[in-house]
Amino acid sequence: MGSGAGVIIAMPLFLYLALMTLLCVKVGDKTSWKVGWLMAAGSVFMPLALFVAFLVP
């Protein structure tokens, strides 16, 4: 049985990912799709990779 740390970290992460995804889509609509993907690569995929690295023992 785990301590629940994964849930405590996962819930804010999913909220962050949802908000950042909406922001990246808005930036992509206002500028170009390349800028939207560039922003998404740094602001969405990096925290997701760090979370996966935290879960892998």
List keywords for this structure.
single chain; mainly alpha; 57 residues
Summarize the structure.
By secondary structure, the chain is mainly alpha-helical. It contains two helices and no strands.
Structural class of the secondary elements?
mainly alpha
Question: What is the 3D form?
Answer: elongated
**Radius of gyration, taken over Cα atoms and rounded to an integer in Å:** 14 Å
State which percent range the strand residues make up.
under 5%
Largest sheet: none
Distance between the termini: 15 Å
The number of strands is 0
Count of helices?
Answer: 2
- Looking at how many chains there are and whether they match, the oligomeric state comes to single chain
Mean pLDDT: 82
Written as H for each helix and E for each strand, in order along the chain, the element string is HH
Low confidence ranges: none
The portion of residues assigned to helices is over 70%
Number of domains: 1
